[in-house]
Structures are given as structure tokens and as C-alpha cells.
Amino acid sequence: MYLNLLETGFTMKEYIQFISNQTECYLFIAGLVMMTISIYFPTRQ
């Protein structure tokens, strides 16, 4: 995790900007969207 960046003097705004530029952030959001879709719109077989 990137939690030590707050200890090195980053402000919360800089921390959020750094995290939003990481690929893991986009993968996390994509995963949440896929889980939400699969829960609320399941396929019927």
C-alpha cells in the first residue's frame, strides 16, 4: 500500500493525486463495477 506517503510529508491532496495515477486504482474501480453488475443484474440460465 501507499500509506507511508502521508508520513513522508505528502498532503492529502497530493496523496489522492498520486493514487489516482496508479493502474491499481482503475482496476479496483473496474472490479467494483463488475461486482455490482453481477450482483444486481445476474444472468438467468
Automatic annotation (TrEMBL):
InterPro entries: YuzI-like. The chain crosses the membrane at residues 26-43. Pfam families: YuzI (PF26135). Keywords: Membrane, Transmembrane, Transmembrane helix. This is Uncharacterized protein.
